[in-house]
Write a structure and sequence with these properties.
The protein has 4 helices and no strands. The chain has about 100 residues and is mainly alpha-helical. The longest helix has 17 residues, at about 75-95.
Length: about 100
Amino acid sequence: MATTHHKSKKKWSANVTEHSDALDLESNIFESKDPKHIAQSLKKSAEQSHRRKSAPYRSAMSMLTFYINRAGKNLEASQKEVLEKAKGELRKLYGRE
């Protein structure tokens, strides 16, 4: 008996980014052109979350890295650069330069 699979219109990685079980992300935060704003928003989300399983810094950095590696795979080079700079800003916010 054949099983039919219905593909969702969105990939699982987009679903994880939008509906993270660990962090409540600001809407469209990864589309921002300001690395500092992205880092500050991720820090705020990580520190306010009671569902995360690791330290706030690790949760925030993991979400950013996940987005860059998976959901952001088709990003324009300029936006990918903004997100990479946001990693540096996040490190600064947590004193991990």
